Amino acid sequence: MKRTYIFFICTLISLSISSQKIQKDKSPKKAAIYSAVIPGAGQIYTKKYWKVPIIYGGLVTSAYFINDNNNQYKEYREAALLSYETGEDQLGYTYSELITLKDHYKRNREISYFSFVGVYILNIIDCYVVCSFVFKFC
Question: Is 32 within 8 Å of 126 (Cβ atoms)?
């Protein structure tokens, strides 16, 4: 399994190095706009195809955790409200434990939002930097 990861990383590095000497007349502004409109389009424009699955992997993973944490947050919030109204334990937790769990999933949901936005912004910055600096020095 470890050899597979090493092979994968070496392949990505070699693709990156080999694709740096393709073209020198790319516009960094155009690449950034492409990536802002459609994530990964700037990487395709700069011919860094191997980065596109990484970008979409980050976006899909972040979206999954946003959804999962939001569902858990809603479940524990409703259980906490019901526990507060009835005075009984809900889902096997006391009211204070439910509040702690609700806050935990709310925080994780917010971190997932920041991760999604971070991957999106890094996508734009990456293609701009590649187009601005890498193609100028090849």
Answer: no
Q: Per-residue pLDDT tens for 27-68?
A: 899 999 999 999 999 999 998 999 999 999 999 999 999 999
* Structure-block tokens of residue 109: 């949901």
∠128-45-124 over CA atoms, to 5°? 30
Cα(124)–Cα(24) distance, integer angstroms: 19
Residue 27 is predicted with a pLDDT of 87
